[in-house]
């Protein structure tokens, strides 16, 4: 079974608006870590932001923030004031506390920011 | 500036040929990874290396082997490549197995004909 699921295959938004990308995960562990990565058109994969399961506050880095809803096993990525260069594929990922070896990735959401 | 490099960036091979993909990092990271990325499937873990000569299978190790003789260098080897190994391969590294963020290389696009 898929441990990390991203149901939105693609999203298109206008520049300077706010976009939310969805991600749900599945784990039995009480401790786990959630990540968002960005893959640009050139293929480069860049770490964006992380949420630790034991933290109640939503993580924020620059114009990226997370909507962590633990009871729903959901970790949404919010990008405010989107820019053209935010166009990319965004991957959600999870690392379980019991298995540090593996980073489970979702299938990605392609974001297109239109001028 | 932290950097993970991969060589070659593009490679075309015939079925049955051997393939060597190279990865390097200049950050003295202990842990390194090999992933493959196929359309619609995200990234799948092939192998992990915790340090020199300390390697562990990931989710899809069949058909692959790895070598790590120096901390800064991690190789992925396909003995007798198959057409279903056509994919984009990414190398990544992190400080140690307990460090959560991974830094990725630019990827190698391998085509097996």
Notes on the protein architecture:
The complex is a heterodimer of chains A (115) and B (113). With 115 residues, chain A is mainly β. Helix content of chain A is 0%, strand content 56%. In chain A, β5 and β6 form a beta hairpin. Chain A is globular. The N and C termini of chain A lie far apart (38 Å). The relative contact order of chain A is 0.34. The model of chain A has no long low-confidence stretch (mean pLDDT 93). With 113 residues, chain B is mainly β. Chain B has strands spanning 4-7, 10-13, 19-25, 31-37, 43-51, 54-57, 65-70, 73-78, 87-94, 103-104, 108-112. In chain B, the strands form two sheets. In chain B, strands 2, 4, 5, 6, 9, 10 and 11 form a seven-stranded mixed sheet that branches. In chain B, a hairpin with a 2-residue loop joins β5 (43-51) and β6. The radius of gyration of chain B is 13 Å and the shape is globular. At the A-B interface, β5, β6, β10 and β11 of A face β5, β9 and β10 of B.
- Count of DSSP helices of chain B? 0
**Largest interface, C-beta within 8 A:** A-B, 22 and 23 residues
Oligomeric state of the chains present here: heterodimer
Rg calc of chain B: 13 Å
> How much helix, percentage-wise, in residues of chain B?
under 10%
Order of helices and strands of chain B: EEEEEEEEEEE
DSSP, total strands of chain A: 12
Largest sheet of chain A: 6 strands, mixed
The overall strand count of chain B is 11
Major β-sheet annotation of chain B: 7 strands, mixed
Shape descriptor of chain A: globular
Mean pLDDT of chain B, to the nearest integer, reads: 91
How would you spell out the order of helices and strands of chain A? EEEEEEEEEEEE
Structural class of chain B: mainly beta
**Helix/strand structural class of chain A:** mainly beta
Helicity range of the residues of chain A?
under 10%
């Amino acid at each position: 079974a898929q441990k990390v699921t991203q149901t939105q295959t693609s999203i298109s938004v206008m520049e300077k608006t706010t976009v939310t990308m969805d991600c749900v995960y599945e784990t039995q562990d009480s401790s786990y870590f959630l990540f968002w990565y960005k893959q640009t058109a050139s293929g480069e994969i860049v770490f964006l932001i992380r949420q630790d399961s034991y933290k109640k506050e939503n993580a924020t880095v620059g114009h990226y923030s997370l909507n962590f809803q633990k009871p729903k096993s959901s970790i949404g990525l919010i990008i405010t004031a989107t820019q053209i260069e935010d166009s990319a594929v965004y991957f959600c990922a999870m690392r379980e506390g019991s298995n540090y070896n593996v980073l489970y990735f979702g299938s990605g959401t392609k974001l297109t920011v239109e001028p | 500036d932290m950097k993970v490099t991969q060589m070659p960036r593009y490679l075309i091979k015939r079925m049955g040929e051997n393939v060597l993909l190279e990865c390097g990092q200049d950050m003295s990271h202990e842990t390194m990874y090999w992933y493959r990325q196929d359309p619609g499937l995200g990234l799948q873990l092939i192998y992990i290396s915790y340090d020199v000569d300390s390697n562990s299978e990931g989710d899809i190790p069949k058909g692959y082997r790895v070598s790590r003789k120096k901390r800064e260098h991690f190789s992925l080897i396909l003995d007798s490549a198959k057409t279903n190994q056509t994919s984009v391969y990414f190398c990544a590294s992190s400080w140690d197995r307990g460090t959560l963020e991974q830094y990725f290389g630019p990827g190698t696009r391998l085509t097996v004909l």
